[in-house]
Amino acid sequence: MQKTVVVIGGGISGLSTCYYLSKNSQSSKIILLEANKRLGGWMHTIRREDGAVFEQGPRAIRPAGVIGRNTLKMVSELGLENEILPVTAENPASRNRFLFVNGKLQKLPSSPVAALKATPPFSKSIFHSILEEIFVKRGTLDDESVHGFVERRLGKELADIAIDSLCRGVFAGDCRKLSMRSCFPPLFHAERKHGSITLGMVLGARMKEESDVKQNRLVQQSRKEHWSQWSLKQGLQTLAESLEDHLRNTDRVEIHQEAAVQQIQMGREGAWEVHVEGGRFKADYIVSAVQAKVLSSMLPPAAQPLAEELQKISPASVAVVNLEYDGLVLPVTGFGHLIPSTENRAVLGIVYDSDAFPEHNRKGPPSTRLTVMMGGAWFTEEFGSPEEADRTRLLHVAVQAVKSHLNVKEMPSWSNVNVHKDCIPQYLVGHWKCLDNIWSLIEQHRLPLSLVGASYEGVSVNDCIFGGKRAAERLLGN
Ligand SMILES: Cc1cc2nc3c(=O)[nH]c(=O)nc-3n(C[C@H](O)[C@H](O)[C@H](O)COP(=O)(O)OP(=O)(O)OC[C@H]3O[C@@H](n4cnc5c(N)ncnc54)[C@H](O)[C@@H]3O)c2cc1C
Ligand SMILES: C=Cc1c2[nH]c(c1C)Cc1[nH]c(c(CCC(=O)O)c1C)Cc1[nH]c(c(C)c1CCC(=O)O)Cc1[nH]c(c(C)c1C=C)C2
């Protein structure tokens, strides 16, 4: 009898899991259940009639590393090669990243030569800090905060300014609470194994990679042309849409939209019952591609210990404000700037979208497109509950930040304010233990259940796609 796999959640993680499952001709029937009308989850693009493209969620994907190359291979299998918008390493949007510190924009060193000099806001050169790091005693704790780790190894200044900002620009999180072991696993393990992150990065083992990924034409092009990041001509939502089209053309895959899962229960014969409003699905196996907290609320009372562990992985909310200004209004060119929490807790950073992807500008007179990201781990203390946060105030704070950080006196000619409630899971200190408990409980009770998505082992689009691939491989017994 043909087995049935139900995948819950049609964001990039759920879509990728279905994609990799459907590639195997012997695999089961696959049912994808998505609560919303639109698939893609946080991968969401606004496309205006005049050609302008504004990202609500991810805006750029890194091609580097095993997981970055894996995504490029998927993109090429989907036939999207001609849709790619690469940003090469020489592009100012790759080289120029700024911090807004002490009321000023400060450019981060963009080359090893630049890292030799002490440049404000840092009193020592980064090269100097890295050299000293080799001689710092190895840590012994099983986990520690990102700030604690970096302060111990590279000094307080780098921890307070650079790492604080980096954690806001990737996790929208507080580096004093985020886990080094789970947010930056290669650096944590490099130190624990080799006694230094510098030595560990030089001597560390590389992840195995399939040869067909390395040989993929798009992957080779990205290496030859030194891409640092990429997007797609009509925005990253195209990736989710292509996956959807591919799945709709595959037998054995059923997609149900506006099908919010309310509860999952284990039936007597060892099969799952998945309850949605007005119906239910039987499943031999479930892949959860929703956030941990959402899965927790679906579990039956008998799975209370698992539900409690999942609840611990709580997410942060981010306000995303897209702004468009007539003309070229920026005093600098680059990817954007981040703001450490000591400078301003409410505003995390500003992306200069029209610098990285001018192809996404409107057709017609020149314009500048910016995205201001706000809140994150500080959302509630700065703006109140995400459901009730005042949109007019959010727009005002964003426009004022652009005015004071970038000296833009004009008002935007177009704007869009969105509050993304619970959009980025926070890997707090001890996250690894929580994962360990979750995997043990699933194994102990022999639950036919896999967990994929940003809640567990990486928040980037590349991580989510790679997680879906690994889950499919495990399920198919490879
Ligand atoms: C503002 C922002 C900027 C980002 N920028 C970048 C970037 O530049 N580069 C990068 O690599 N990454 C970026 N990320 C991270 C990345 O985009 C996300 O981590 C990733 O998209 C998460 O995908 P997912 O499928 O795991 O989860 P989601 O996108 O959350 O998908 C989960 C899906 O499950 C559905 N669902 C929820 N409840 C139910 C239910 N009860 N039943 C059925 N379905 C349900 C939801 O509707 C959703 O479609 C960014 C994230 C955000 C929020
Ligand atoms: C200001 C808030 C945010 C900005 N982007 C994100 C948030 C929360 C989310 C995000 N950004 C990146 C990733 C993927 C990480 C990966 O491993 O690929 C996610 C989830 C990429 C990224 N953006 C910045 C950095 C330093 C990185 C890490 C990898 C890389 O070097 O590309 C910097 C940055 N992000 C934002 C701004 C304004 C900014 C400025 C320099 C927005």
TrEMBL record:
The keyword Mitochondrion applies. It is an enzyme of class 1 (oxidoreductase). Keywords: FAD, Flavoprotein, Heme biosynthesis, Membrane, Mitochondrion, Mitochondrion inner membrane, Oxidoreductase, Porphyrin biosynthesis. The keyword Membrane applies. Its EC number is 1.3.3.4. Its cofactor is FAD. InterPro entries: Amino_oxidase, FAD/NAD-bd_sf, Protoporphyrinogen_oxidase, Zeta_carotene_desat/Oxidored. It is a peripheral membrane protein. Monomer. Homodimer. Belongs to the protoporphyrinogen/coproporphyrinogen oxidase family. Protoporphyrinogen oxidase subfamily. Catalyzes the 6-electron oxidation of protoporphyrinogen-IX to form protoporphyrin-IX. This is Protoporphyrinogen oxidase. The gene is PPOX.
